[in-house]
Amino acid sequence: xxxxxxxxxxxxxxxxxxxxxxxxxxxxxxxxxxxxxxxxxxxxxxxxxxxxxxxxxxxxxxxxxxxxxxxxxxxxxxxxxxxxxxxxxxxxxxxxxxxxxxxxxxxxxxxxxxxxxxxxxxxxxxxxxxxxxxxxxxxxx
Amino acid sequence: xxxxxxxxxxxxxxxxxxxxxxxxxxxxxxxxxxxxxxxxxxxxxxxxxxxxxxxxxxxxxxxxxxxxxxxxxxxxxxxxxxxxxxxxxxxxxxxxxxxxxxxxxxxxxxxxxxxxxxxxxxxxxxxxxxxxxxxxxxxxxxxxxxxxxxxxxxxxxxxxxxxxxxxxxxxxxxxxxxxxxxxxxxxxxxxxxxxxxxxxxxxxxxxxxxxxxxxxxxxxxxxxxxxxxxxxxxxxxxxxxxxxxxxxxxxxxxxxxxxxxxxxxxxxxxxxxxxxxxxxxxxxxxxx
Lengths: 141, 288
What we know:
The complex is a heterodimer.
Chain A: E1 5-11, E2 15-28, E3 31-35, E4 42-55, E5 61-74, E6 77-82, H1 89-107, H2 116-140
Parallel strand pairs in A: 1-6
Antiparallel strand pairs in A: 1-2, 2-3, 2-4, 4-5, 5-6
Chain B: H1 2-41, H2 43-59, E1 76-82, H3 92-109, E2 113-119, H4 121-130, E3 134-138, H5 147-162, E4 168-178, E5 181-190, H6 194-197, E6 207-209, H7 212-287
Parallel strand pairs in B: 1-2, 1-4, 2-3
Antiparallel strand pairs in B: 4-5
Helix pairs in contact in B: 1-7, 2-7, 5-7
């Protein structure tokens, strides 16, 4: 039997690939990295590119495109944590600024302090309504 | 027979309402299944990245990530509130918001300042209305949560943590237990505690490519994001099942109301007929 290693390719939104592989090629941030079984433990970031997996039972390589992420090599297990979105420092920064500005915009026209009494009153009213509906149902049956 | 027409209109209107709630129930039921699948699909990633983070926290002595360091004095707290965008889902958002408001009140009593990040329209408008310090928000996520749309909102909080503007970060969302049961929970995200990560199976140090810091930074950020994403996915599954249950009970209620109204309507109709007959009989007796 060929020497193989288990490989998992997962993203936050779905599991992409799981199986035994003889050899994989990963587009690491410092250049392409080929990994055979029994590789030393390693962590590296991945840049957008194609992930090539040579599976044990199939002569052809499986190609998976990933938009970045992390590669972790453990003894007997390789994990590719793929990103679901194209990431970059500037891109992330722009998103953060957008989220911040939207919140600031929405906060403009109101008083500054948190009114706990109002918040709790509002919530207990809502809870009371739901409970009243439930009680009404129970008494009818 | 003045009342009967009004009752008929009323019955018609309740029937229409019932049609809508019934449709919403079925829509929610089908969305619920998909939302549950998505929730499960996000688990392997979270599990894997948690393992790696656990290894790293034990394996790497020369660089400790700020997310792993506990701060001695906690003065400022960040809270991410995960709610639904739409209403009509029973007590889902109310219960979650109640938990967070109670917790916030306790923090306030301890003299800690709180900044909020809101995911979902309901939580955002509530926090805004009651005057919480909302740092960032994202609304209109739709039925399928995408990590991409959450990045900005989370990053605002992570940046604030790194800059020392907040010392702890929590997330509050509704945990999906089963279709009938959902529970609001509060979970600490930062700093990551050792118990949360668990201890790794076996010890080894990694080779870091290109070097430890950027890789660990990236990993930690992804880890927190995956936790928040998980919370959102779970909240969506809770939302749909909660809505399904709420709409089912609304449909049942409508059915009962229709039954009651029909009874009243028939009584009124019968009374009117009886009255007419007795009038005819009375009239006939007077003539003959």
